[in-house]
Amino acid sequence: RFHRNRRKRRNSRIGQLTTGGRKRMRLGAIALALIAGCVTLGCQSTVNAPAVTTAARVSPPLVPPVKSEISQELEAYYSTVQSRLLSQGLLRVDGGGPDTPFTADMLANNFMRIALFEEYAKVGGQMVAKQTPSYLHRWEEPVRLKIEFGPSVPQQIRTKDHTRVNRLVSRLGRATGHPVSEVTEDANFHVFVVNESERHALKSRIRAIVPGISDAAVMKVTRMPRSHYCIAFAWDPDDSGTYREAVAIIRAEHPDLMRLSCLHEEIAQGFGLSNDSPKARPSVFNDDEEFGLLTHHDELLLKMLYDDRLTPGMTPGEAAPIVQTLARELVGGAG
């Protein structure tokens, strides 16, 4: 399930996009993941390696890979984009304030549009922009999130982003009340920070993580134009509304705030808030670029999504009265 938001990011619920035979492919995908996990992100295999003498074991200084011309061009392009947005007062990080009031009805309507509608539909084997009623999706098992970096990403950025993701994970856990942690293995939510060539090389890795993913969905990752800043998708193998795996792709060429903004939105959308609404404010789930990071409004949406009174698979009609009740409890009043 794909969406386009103000940053031209995309999210998909792969349970509605994959071809058949997903369960039959699972075992083969596990073996593939062990191989792809090495080759796609630049680690070195020790299989059939020649013997190494004691003198040769001294590691040379780490030299960052030479960036491709297109990655250098993208870095310059996104730096200009970020500067322009900031000069216009956009990409706010304050979370909203007196200038962005919202009522219970506004919160409820935003939830319905963001959590219970699709922005993309599959027509004739292609993903086309079409707002379509869907059903409620979220995680039932604990979320185990792992962030991985391509070889092009400098160590200082890796350290900074690890710290940011750890803080974000804690914030999402508080907002949802759902178990979520950052892990180094056995992840079910994979976040890749990669440059252009590294992203193209993720094709096999993605197929291993999400068995049976459609060619159309894979192409959304590998053929992402520069107008699309980042991408995320989640897998609902039983088409029941329950997520089992999720993947987010963040461009390494982004400057600092745009990269952080992508991390906030794509990870949050991987929890089940996968659409956008032009009426959502203050919110990152809007096409207007005003807010760059999750807001208090967005935390309330997450809290509603994981309330026990809602269940995965609910239709908009089933969820609407409960959503109204939840919004009034959180904000107060009906106006």
How many strands appear in the DSSP assignment? 10
User: Which oligomeric state applies?
Assistant: single chain
Counting H and I runs of at least 4 residues, what is the number of helices? 10
Choose one word for the global shape. globular
- Spans of at least 5 consecutive residues with low confidence: 1-6, 9-63
Distance between the termini: 32 Å
What is the radius of gyration computed over CA atoms, rounded to a whole number of angstroms? Answer: 20 Å
Q: How does this model look, in words?
A:
- The chain has 10 helices and 10 strands.
- The chain is an alpha/beta fold.
- It has a 6-stranded mixed sheet with strand order 1-8-10-7-5-6, sandwiched between helices. Strands 2-3 form a two-stranded antiparallel sheet.
- Strand 2 and strand 3 form a beta hairpin.
- The chain is globular, with a radius of gyration of 20 Å.
- The model is unreliable at 1-6 and 9-63 (pLDDT under 50).
Give a brief description.
By secondary structure, the protein is of the alpha/beta class. It is built from 10 helices and 10 strands.
